[in-house]
């Protein structure tokens, strides 16, 4: 079947899949918010307006203001940039370094595979958030350090997944045939293995994206992530906690934003899993 | 409605209609399947996967069911056992020793399965629970249906393993499935199936997944045990050679229906259905001249959602007529051999072995070269 | 059996050793030396020298490592810079809070997830199953510290059933008691358990569904077992293998999540200890706590491996022996 035809068929199936549509819609909303916020937000996020602090939701401030009088709606909107950035870079690091490692391990087998997998296993033994906290502690808090820390922990995840999926492809007879015909391992990896593992990786990427957003939120909550004045949903929750008795809703909005973003990504990931390879999602 | 009765004619009305003289008999069949239809709910809609299967078996009969993948032979077996998926709809009659299986409750069916009817499957490697020792898996039906306690069940399991000629049976009792080879696991499966001495054994491609060297042994074992216990055997396979050696009667299935049914010898002597003829002709023979093309059946098996209303073989048939596509053809009698009663078998009813075919054009078929 | 156990034990031991080296090594690779990190940029050269002396930084790294490990094995540990007590004492104190918390959270998780997962799998595609899946989808999306805050909002601020944080202590002399202590840990345990339950429920459900489609289930049905009997006697034990794997991984997650949750509820546990130590740049405490937590995770994984051998005889006897 030609590629445009398969693409069309897939899009049709995709649009019928409830999970995927719901998830993709939410993710789209997230992307739009982030894009829009690059150019405009109801109020500049740096605008401190003490007289109007902790205001309730109104026509001027759709979600009210925080303890420094900043507009919550603007903070939420601009904060989406932060979340998207973290997700992209962290997943990017994982894909960029983890996938080649996994492909290498799978193609070479033997001691190369052992070393890579042991290293990956070993990193799993270290609780990821703990090490991220450690790194931010040593190198100082901030967006860059936290993204790097989260990204580093994506590498073994993607390495493992890639290697597992690649092994399945290598064990199929057509790779043997390709080798018998004289193709090098690298050519086979690039032309055959990679396209076949792509669907697994895409699904995992959405999962890791969601995890990255959650991890950054946790780090920011602890004060180790994005630093002021850059808005971060996680840090907003921390600030809101001290105002819990006066303005309880402040603790709700940023959490909803995080949960919504993660939910959207998870739904999209589930949907992609069903669409790209139904065998992955359910029983045999 | 037609019947693919093998030996003892049961439906006298129908036989009268066809105009055949049958010897009346009082013996009830062991297993009687009448107009079995199975519908499956798929993403393409409701499909009829079995389109009216009829046959009968007596004690000691060995019946073979042959056909390609997708023709419905496994479905037939699963329908008899009541193991069809929940979305499947079954109509028709399946009667085992007088009990109508299609009317039974789940609980009652569970009581029949393993006790009165047993089945062994194609993949011995995955058919056993990897976490339970062998003896426990054999003891399970004994505990369930005969209320045995663990000790007696284990002892009986040992007897059964010896009966299926598993070497070093005593040691193997405590083994786990992964410690046995495929052939050995299939022997264990046979012992599980025979544990409660069922009336019929259904074997769905029992040796397909085994080494060729082991296949003959396992099949011989099955035949022997079936004969010893006087069970009925329904052997499902896609292998003609197997049929020749192992069963007394063969039914050929295609597209959800039985297209030809005959005693093995008769079938190997003469084929009446174009599909069967094609099957036989497609067998590679030793000693052919170099360059001889292998025979094939033109076209391919239609997908289940593309089955035509009439004969499923219509599009590939050299003898097809317009009527063939409109409705499933009726069964026609090809030959009818009455065997003289053996003095030794004076109390056995007279056997009349019929050769049926579901094709109006069978007389046109040219004899094979 | 024994070769498998031995193998696993060596693996466990090796991982512990490598972990200790890495933990030690990370703190060696600091920008500047340890003394500078601890004292910060405003330190005078004299205080720096004093600190270096105290930390024994003039000795080569290897001998410091050996000293540290030797000390750990004998039950002694370094002295905390900020608290001026042995880290071991600090950690034991804090474990009185964190360990019960972790156990409570894990118990809730296992109980809820197994029940919900098996239920959803046995009633696949029914309303109940869809309900469970939706709930778990929501549970996965919730940041656990947000759930914690919401719980505080509801139960402490609105309903005022419990306090908004803090831990009264286990003994009654300190103003606490068994009941008071447990009450203070319930909300944190729920917050910790929520996400893990969602994950484990999904894993359980898919493991059971996968198990139910295996060939031996068909064999069991052919023997005459009812659906219930098949579930309990055949499916569940096989399904437990992947479930137990995930449970092991979750323990690590739980420990790290506890860091955040203890901060939300201001509980004097290990999580809060390490957080404060980081804020105080108390590298000794950080090093020892990280080592302890990693060792706990590695130990749990070792026990999980042993559990496998008990569940799955293929590991005990090795594969294929024909």
How does this structure look, described?
The complex is a heterotrimer of chains A (284), B (369) and C (322). Chain A is mostly helical. Chain A has helices spanning 3-16, 18-39, 72-108, 110-125, 128-139, 143-170, 173-180, 185-221, 233-242, 253-276, 278-281. Mean pLDDT of chain A is 84; it is low at 280-284. By secondary structure, chain B is an alpha/beta fold. Chain B has an 8-stranded mixed β-sheet with strand order 6-7-8-3-9-10-12-11, sandwiched between helices. Chain B is globular, with a radius of gyration of 21 Å. Residues 1-25 of chain B have low confidence and may be disordered. Chain C is mainly α and 322 residues long. Helices cover 78% and strands 0% of the residues of chain C. The model of chain C has no long low-confidence stretch (mean pLDDT 83). The chains are: A mainly alpha (284), B alpha/beta (369), C mainly alpha (322). The A-C interface holds A 122, 124-130, 133-134, 137-139, 210, 214, 217-218, 221-222, 234, 237, 240-241, 244-245, 248, 251-252, 254-255, 258-260, 262-263, 266-267, 270, 282-284 and C 15, 18-19, 22, 26-27, 30-31, 37, 137-138, 140-143, 145-146, 149-150, 152-153, 157, 164, 206, 209-210, 212-213, 249, 252-253, 255-257, 259-260, 263-264, 274-275, 278, 281, 286, 290, 293-294, 297-298, 301.
Key terms for this structure?
heterotrimer, A: 284 residues, mainly alpha, B: 369 residues, alpha/beta, 8-stranded mixed β-sheet, 4-stranded antiparallel β-sheet, 13 helices, 31% helix
Give a short summary of the structure.
Chain A is an all-alpha fold and about 280 residues long. Helix content of chain A is about 75%, strand content about 0%. In chain A, helix 4 (about 110-125) crosses helix 6.
Main beta-sheet strand count, sense and barrel state of chain C: none
- Oligomer category: heterotrimer
Radius of gyration of chain C: 24 Å
**Strand-residue fraction of chain B?**
15-25%
- Terminal-residue CA separation of chain C: 18 Å
String of helices and strands of chain B: HEEEHEEHEHHHHHEHEHEEHHHEE
Strand content of chain C: under 5%
SS elements, strand count of chain B: 12
Number of strands of chain C: 0
Instruction: Give the helix level of chain C as a range of percent.
Output: over 70%
Low-pLDDT sequence parts of chain B: 1-25
Spatial shape of chain B? globular
Q: How confident is the prediction overall: mean pLDDT of chain C?
A: 83
């Amino acid at each position: 079947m030609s590629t445009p035809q398969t693409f069309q068929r897939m899009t049709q199936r995709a649009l019928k899949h409830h999970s995927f549509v719901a998830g993709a819609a939410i993710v789209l909303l997230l992307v739009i918010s982030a894009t829009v916020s690059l150019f405009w937000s109801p109020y500049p996020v740096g605008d401190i307006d003490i007289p109007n602090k902790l205001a309730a939701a109104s026509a001027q401030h759709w979600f009210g203001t925080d303890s420094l009088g900043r507009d919550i709606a603007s903070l939420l909107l601009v904060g989406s940039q932060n979340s998207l950035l973290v997700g992209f870079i962290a997943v990017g690091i994982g894909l960029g370094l983890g996938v080649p490692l996994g492909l290498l391990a799978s193609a070479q087998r033997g001691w190369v595979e052992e070393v890579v997998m042991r290293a990956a296993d070993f990193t799993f033994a270290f609780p990821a958030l703990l090490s991220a906290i450690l790194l931010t502690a040593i190198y100082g808090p901030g967006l860059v350090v936290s993204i790097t820390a989260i990204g580093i922990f994506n590498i073994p995840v993607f390495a493992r997944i890639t290697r597992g999926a690649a092994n399945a492809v290598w064990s199929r007879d057509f790779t043997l045939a390709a080798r018998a015909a004289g193709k090098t391992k690298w050519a086979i990896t690039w032309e055959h293995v990679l396209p076949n593992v792509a669907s697994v990786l895409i699904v995992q990427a959405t999962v890791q994206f969601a995890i990255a957003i959650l991890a950054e939120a946790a780090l920011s909550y602890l004060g180790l992530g994005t630093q002021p004045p850059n808005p971060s949903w996680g840090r907003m929750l921390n600030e809101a906690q001290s105002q819990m008795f006066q303005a309880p809703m402040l603790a709700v909005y940023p959490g909803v934003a995080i949960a919504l973003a993660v939910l959207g990504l998870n739904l999209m990931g589930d949907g992609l899993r069903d669409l790209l390879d139904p065998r992955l999602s359910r029983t045999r | 409605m037609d019947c693919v009765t093998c030996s003892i004619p049961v439906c006298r009305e129908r036989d009268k209609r066809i105009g055949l003289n049958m010897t009346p008999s009082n013996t009830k069949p062991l297993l009687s399947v009448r107009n079995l239809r199975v519908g499956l709910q798929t993403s393409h809609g409701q499909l009829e996967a079995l389109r009216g299967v009829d046959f009968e078996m007596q004690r000691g009969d060995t019946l073979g069911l042959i056909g390609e993948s997708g023709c419905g032979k496994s479905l037939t077996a699963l329908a008899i056992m009541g193991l069809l998926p929940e979305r499947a709809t079954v109509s028709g009659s399946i009667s085992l020793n007088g009990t109508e299986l299609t009317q039974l409750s789940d609980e009652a069916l569970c009581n029949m399965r393993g006790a009165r009817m047993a089945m062994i499957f194609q993949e011995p490697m995955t058919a056993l629970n990897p976490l339970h020792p062998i003896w426990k898996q054999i003891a399970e039906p004994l505990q369930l249906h005969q209320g045995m306690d663990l000790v007696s069940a284990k002892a009986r399991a040992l007897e059964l393993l010896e009966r299926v000629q598993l070497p070093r049976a005593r040691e193997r009792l405590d083994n786990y499935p992964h410690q046995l080879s495929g052939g050995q696991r299939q022997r264990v499966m046979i012992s599980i199936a025979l544990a409660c001495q069922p009336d019929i054994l259904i074997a769905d491609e029992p040796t397909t997944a085994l080494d060729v060297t082991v296949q003959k042994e396992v099949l011989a074992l099955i035949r022997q045990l079936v004969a010893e216990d006087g069970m009925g055997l329904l052997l499902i396979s896609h292998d003609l050679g197997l049929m020749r050696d192992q069963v007394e009667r063969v039914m050929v299935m295609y597209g959800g229906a039985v297209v030809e049914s005959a005693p093995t010898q008769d079938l190997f002597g003469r084929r009446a259905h174009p599909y069967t003829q094609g099957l036989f002709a497609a067998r590679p023979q030793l000693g052919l001249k170099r360059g001889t093309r292998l025979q094939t059946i033109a076209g391919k098996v239609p997908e289940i959602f593309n089955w035509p209303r009439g004969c499923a073989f219509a599009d590939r048939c050299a003898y097809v007529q317009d009527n063939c596509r409109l409705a499933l053809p009726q069964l026609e009698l090809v030959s009818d051999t009455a065997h003289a009663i053996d003095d030794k078998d004076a109390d056995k009813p007279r056997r009349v072995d019929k050769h049926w075919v579901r094709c109006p054009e069978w007389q046109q078929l040219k004899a094979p070269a | 059996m024994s070769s498998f156990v031995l193998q696993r034990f060596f693996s466990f031991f090796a991982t512990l050793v490598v972990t200790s080296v890495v933990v030690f090594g990370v703190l060696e690779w600091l920008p500047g030396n340890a003394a500078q990190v601890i004292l910060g940029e405003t330190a005078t050269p004299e205080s720096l020298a004093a600190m270096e002396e105290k930390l024994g930084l003039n000795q080569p790294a290897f001998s410091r490592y050996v000293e540290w490990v030797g000390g750990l094995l004998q039950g002694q540990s370094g002295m905390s810079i900020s608290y001026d007590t042995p880290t071991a004492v600090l950690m034991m104190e804090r474990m009185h809070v964190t360990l019960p918390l972790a156990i409570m959270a894990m118990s809730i998780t296992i109980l809820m997830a197994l029940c919900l997962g098996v239920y959803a799998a046995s009633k696949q595609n029914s309303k109940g199953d869809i309900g469970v899946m939706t709930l778990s989808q929501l549970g996965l999306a919730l940041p656990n510290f947000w759930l914690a805050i919401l719980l505080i909002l509801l139960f402490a601020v609105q309903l005022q059933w419990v306090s908004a944080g803090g831990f009264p202590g286990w003994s009654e002399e300190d103003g606490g008691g068994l009941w008071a202590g447990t009450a203070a840990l319930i909300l944190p345990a729920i917050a910790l358990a929520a996400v893990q339950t969602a994950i484990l429920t999904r894993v359980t459900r898919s493991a059971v569904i996968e198990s139910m489609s295996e060939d031996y289930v068909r064999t069991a049905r052919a023997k005459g077992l009812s659906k219930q009997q098949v579930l309990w006697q055949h499916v569940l034990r096989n399904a437990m293998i992947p479930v137990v794997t995930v449970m092991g991984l979750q323990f690590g997650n739980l420990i790290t999540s506890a860091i955040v949750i203890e901060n939300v509820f201001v509980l004097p546990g290990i999580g809060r200890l390490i957080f404060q130590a980081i804020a105080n740049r108390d590298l000794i405490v950080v090093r020892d706590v990280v080592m302890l937590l990693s060792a706990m995770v590695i130990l749990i994984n070792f026990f999980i491996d042993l559990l496998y051998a008990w569940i799955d005889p293929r590991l005990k006897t090795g594969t294929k022996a024909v």
